[in-house]
């Protein structure tokens, strides 16, 4: 029997086949969720971006024991920043949070757990959006 779960949703109950279900975690990077990171230096603060961390850690711990695929994305740009819009680069310079500046904040997934340690493989190196794919959470 294929594992399934039913989720009370509106307008009707949603039944998910776990082997055909994925969780997509978007931009949970230190740069967006940690004091001193890019978002904080831009003046955006991290109060709201930190709120889902605890519930997400609980959800991930549970899902890693199931056949659900877990996908993490992160923002990234080419080393020469040729794929970063000029207005975004200029805004980051004015805010003293320059995109592409040296430092580990934007290169480490939140919770200081490297993708390889989680069984993840980074895809599309050099693309604007680096995509990670689950490769063995069971």
Automatic annotation (TrEMBL):
Residues 21-106 form the Isochorismatase-like domain. SUPFAM superfamilies: Isochorismatase-like hydrolases. Keywords: Hydrolase. Pfam families: Isochorismatase (PF00857). Residues 74-96 have a biased composition (Basic and acidic residues). Residues 74-99 are annotated as: Disordered. InterPro entries: Isochorismatase-like_dom, Isochorismatase-like_hydrls, Isochorismatase-like_sf. One of its GO terms (molecular function) is hydrolase activity. This is Cysteine hydrolase family protein. It comes from Vasconcelosia minhoensis LEGE 07310.
């Amino acid at each position: 029997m294929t594992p399934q779960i039913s989720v009370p949703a509106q307008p009707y109950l949603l039944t998910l086949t776990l082997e055909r279900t994925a969780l997509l975690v978007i931009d949970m990077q230190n740069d967006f969720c940690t004091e001193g990171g890019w978002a904080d230096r831009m003046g955006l603060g991290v109060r709201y971006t930190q709120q889902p961390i605890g519930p997400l850690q609980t959800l991930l711990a549970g899902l890693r024991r199931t056949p659900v695929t877990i996908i993490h994305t992160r923002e990234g740009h080419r080393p020469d920043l040729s794929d970063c819009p000029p207005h975004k680069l200029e805004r980051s310079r004015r805010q003293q949070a320059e995109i592409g500046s040296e430092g580990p904040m934007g290169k480490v997934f939140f919770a200081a757990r490297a993708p390889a340690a989680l069984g993840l493989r980074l895809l599309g190196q050099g693309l604007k959006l680096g995509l990670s794919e689950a490769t063995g959470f069971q």
